Amino acid sequence: MISTLGQSLVLASLFFSAVGSAAAFQAGRNGSESGYKLARTFAYLFAGSIVMANFVMVYALVTHDFSVGYVAEVGSKSTPLYFTIVSLWASLNGSILFWGGILGLYTGGFLLSMGNNHREYMPWTLHVQLGIAVFFTLLIATIADPFAAVANPLPDGPGPNPLLQNHWLMAIHPPTLYLGYVGMVGPYSMICGALLAGRVEAGWMRPIRNWMLIPWSWLSLGIVLGGWWSYAVLGWGGAWAWDPVENASFHPWLTGTAFLHSAMVLERRGRMRDWTLILGMTTFLLTLVGTFMTRSGVFNSVHSFTQSDIGPVFLYFIGFILVYSVLLLAFRSGALDEASKENQRNLGTQAPTLTHGASLLSREAAILAQNAVFAIFTFLVLQGTLWPLVLEAAQDRRVSVGEPYFDRVALPLGILLVFLMGVGPALPWGRMRTEDALPRFMGPVIGGGVLAGVVALAGYHGPYSLLAMFVIGFAATANMGELITPIRARMEAKKEGVAGATQAVLTRTRRRFGGHVAHYGVLLAVFSLAMTKGYRTETEFSVSPGDVSEFNGYTLRYVGSEEVQEEHRRSMLATFDVHSGDRSIGLLSPRMNYYSSMREPVFSPDVYSNPMGDLYLSLIELSGDQAVYRVIYQPYQMWMWWSGPVIMFGTLIAIWPARRRRRGGELPANPEQASA
Amino acid sequence: MSQPKVNKGILIGGLLVVLPLVALLYSGFGKDPKRLPNELEGRPAPQFSLVDLEGYPVSLDQAQGKPVVLNFWSTWCGPCKAEHPLLQDRAAANPNVAFYGVIYQDEPEKVLRYLRQVGTSYRHLVDPGNRMAIDYGVTGVPETFFIDKRGVIAHKSPGPVYPELLDGWLREIQTP
Amino acid sequence: MIWLMVAALAAGPADDPGAGLIAGLPPGPAPSAEEVVPRTHAIAVTLRCPVCQGLSVADSTSPAAVAFQRRIQELVALGYTDQQIRDYFIDRYGEWILLDPNMNGLNAVLYLLPGILLGLGAVWVGATVAQWRKEPSDALLPSEVGAADMDDYERRLLKELDE
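ok -> structure tokens follow
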């Protein structure tokens, strides 16, 4: 019964997306108003039915309807309700359904927000977006059918992967990442739409950038949460191990970040158009490649679901869409050249693609350099991730590429990027004489020196960390200047008070303001990373009950161990009474969890966090009375977790819909205003 | 609208990136990423000299031309316990093959307690510090080695054994 | 850990546990006790924990990684060189066990490409900006005509704010 309902909804969404995509194609070709309306209707119907299908699956999971294939695979009556609901994405077929559901939500939100704007490329955009939806709904309807009926349903099921129940973060970090991955369909489709349409109106880049910003911020949050999960669950005291799955989420983040910046150059200066389009398309394509790498079983990974038929089909799709993207760009970008010439003739100096001269010391040059570094970074991380596959294919050699390689790549490129994060905001667009530009770096240089000095005085004075602290202080000061200068300028020009000027600047330059807030989020993460990488200290102790160990100003008394039997696992835990000087911090209990289905135990650490650093306890061995444990001090680790929310907050400021100020919501034609 | 110019740079550069990438991903199919490199097959089995749970010394030399089956295992490993009855049965049925269990990261007391419950027909070695396991290139338990009469490792089986596999290799190492 | 000692005694003096398995003899005298821990760590970060997802032997707390660490420490204390110890693990597990592949054969690409790409990137940025410099601006900035009573940048900000 539920099976039939679910399958019908999936088939309906397949039908709606297919017909909608075709209708949108037709509407794009002949520009028919009614054709486009029809396509939109189908798009909404697609969104509605695939989201409904997700709810039907959740209903089946919650009611333990084991006649539904997916429920029989991951459901269990003994699983708590919360984990039953999140097991929607616990296994392959469910997660593809969930993927479709998110695509539905994005499609609906996107159509609502676009209203009747950019009719020149919207039909084509819809054609591409629904085309991608056709592929995924086809998967759900056929080889990955989660609603497949079970002929003789059993009274109970095995329950989801036990690791899913290890930590609440495991439940929320996958959907966050999905919101990041799936959302990249939006900007991709819009770019394809613009190329297919071959003409764009003023301000065409703005919605594309906004619809990149939303999934980009989810992706940022998802990466941070994934790191936090790794830190809190895996017991080795780190957030990032350059595992193929982690890298797969990092690639689109890198290109997406580059896109967000080059799109500004395109919007304001009419430059770097093809490059920006390549970045935007690549971001989506990398999410597909990443999904394939981690899910097809080609890589050995915690995240890879068991081998399935989906791999080859998915690869055909990737091959098709990669080639399609290249051909589209190669054959259609010329059309946009024509279009911008036409726009220039019509709009004069207000044209969005009017080019402006610029010198090396300019914001666009800084962004260009930043883009180059991001592109190199992406390529090198991708290369390191794929290298074992390359060598195996070429020479049948089995090698690993791990942290030492990636750290060697990431350290110099990361420092360069943070430095450029300060250079860009310190410089204006366009031309400026060198002797006028250089004084702008005074403040940031002093800021960098101060931060490096303070951190050095606190005892952290390795050469790399001093360099890292300098560029962080440099970027932080430059971005602060960017927040303060417009307020000061307005106070002087309009004779306003601080509050009034701040409010005016905040409401009028929301995008700029949000961007700088997001910069601070990234700086938090880089700061934490530099400190934990450089100054993590660790020791191992072997103790009997009553023994006291001293570590980094903390006293740890081993109280004893106990065994806890739970339904899905057996745990051994050791308890420590921890004091910092005379102050009691309480009991910390790291544990080893044994799952019957896994070869290796999972080591769950226990952590005492404060802003200055984390005390991280991890159990290594328990035999009789003896406990061997590792204790790690991670300076400023907590700041890493705050970077995600800060980036989200910055994004929220940036995309918050502006008040419709003039002439009933008409988009400003001037790109300078559009991006203010 | 006139036909726009084709951007040859993007066309050629793009295809040069995209096509090898797809080929590379395609090459990954049919290969098991969990398959670990197997360096020791066909090489002489590393020597060991350990004590068993009762405290008697055991070394590879003691096999004296008999084929050997080494099973690395521990009591905290579910699949190890699951395959134990099968190994026990085959050890009893093949007196000409020396079966040894090698305890991997576990306490001898726990192992003794467990073996008293389920019984055992072969000896189990204590491997302090996992030295022997590393000499044999063991990555995790269970892992089973089949050593022929000449003392050469004929096969290494990562993960639990099943009857066909075990019987096949038992035949293999017993044929001269 | 009584059983450890019992086992060690029964197995005879464990003076050279690597005998016969490791290429060559220790070249020099055993290192001092202070040297052993940092050297062990330095080797451990370059070896892959065989049961983990990309974690090094130094980072992982899994039984396999802990066993590796102890083995490395033992061999370091006996006076073997870092390379001998790494080779011992490569011999058991294949070059797959190295987290940082040796620079041989095709692997050289991993080491050379970053520098090459950075060079190409710099050329690309330089050439593009050179192109931009040649193009005209929409209007000369106050700073360019030398009449900047207010900072030209502030002026532009105000213009944007006044939209």
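Chain A touches chain B through 48 residues (CB under 8 Å).
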